[in-house]
Design goal:
It is built from two helices and 19 strands. The protein is mainly β and about 280 residues long. The protein has a single domain, classed as Nucleic acid-binding proteins (OB fold (Dihydrolipoamide Acetyltransferase, E2P)). The longest helix has 6 residues.
Length: about 280
């Protein structure tokens, strides 16, 4: 999708960059049968903060997305491409030959009126879902399953894709967006192409109000709080009390959280560290 810039008529408009939604379908309301309400639990409960830095967002309905793509060997037509307030990616409304409708994540290059399939022996084109063992090496995929019939869990946000690197002995190597190379079972399903809405990361909201509409409230640094409010607070100068970076509950922050050694055997190469060096296992 293209980006939209504005004339600097006001200080906020000077730096505002938003998405141009002309490529999306004009209808605004989603299908009633494909949405459900989700209770918003952020903000305050009985006057006490339940989730920090969140609350007061615009109302939204959750769109039910078909991550499993388990309607096999039946052609579906792309009826519309719509905005989804719950994710960075856009979604596509499919209508199958038997009349059923489902939402899927919209990959880059998917247009209204195109036919898509899901199954073992389907053409390798954008929007089609198939087993990893049948996908050619060097192909970009998204919405990848980790376990068979579990539904896609990898590469679901805007602009994301993993690359199929080939496979052997019931596993296929996937190169993740982070640079990590890992093994996934060859019978797991993945969708061809990369997720659309690539320019989502280049958006500049321009004013605080748009952030508040999303339900994001101001964040205050722990250093400027009192000692009773945060482990970093209470100092006379700009230094961290206790030396170690901690969260509000006093737990160490910035340390590795991965403890699942059982799945280490599926990771061939770790993602690169922030310093540009390859992290060790």
């Amino acid at each position: 999708m293209a980006l939209k810039k504005y004339k600097p008529k006001t200080p906020s408009l000077r730096h505002t960059v938003l998405l141009d939604n002309r490529e999306l379908s004009k209808k605004k309301k989603p299908k009633k049968k494909l949405v459900r309400t989700v209770k918003y639990k952020a903000g305050r409960s009985k006057g006490k903060i339940s989730v920090r830095h969140k609350g007061g967002r615009a109302k939204r309905l959750y769109r039910k997305i078909d991550f499993k793509r388990d309607k096999r060997d039946i052609s579906a037509v792309v009826e519309s491409i719509e905005y989804d307030p719950n994710r960075s990616a856009n979604i596509a409304l499919l209508k199958y030959k038997d009349g059923e409708q489902r939402y899927i994540l919209a990959p880059s290059g998917l247009k209204i009126g195109m036919n898509v399939f899901s199954g073992e022996k389907v053409p390798q084109k954008v929007g089609n879902a198939m087993m990893l063992k049948n996908i050619l090496s060097g192909t970009k995929v998204h919405n990848v399953e980790i376990y068979k019939n579990s539904g896609g869990q990898i590469c679901r946000s805007a602009g994301c894709s993993a690359m199929v690197m080939g496979g052997d002995k019931e596993y296929v190597q996937l190169k993740m967006p982070s640079g990590e190379i890992r093994l996934v079972r060859e019978e797991c399903f993945a969708t061809i192409g990369e997720i659309g809405n690539i320019d989502h990361s280049n958006v500049k909201l321009g004013k605080a109000g748009r952030k508040r509409h999303k339900g994001i409230r101001p964040t205050v640094r722990g250093q400027v709080m009192g000692a009773h409010e945060h482990p970093h607070g209470g100092g006379e100068a700009k230094h961290r009390v206790g030396g170690q970076k901690k969260d509000i509950y006093g737990n160490r922050a910035g340390v590795r959280t991965r403890k699942n050694k059982r799945t280490d055997k599926y990771i061939i190469r770790r993602r690169k560290s922030k310093r540009g060096k390859k992290s060790k296992k």
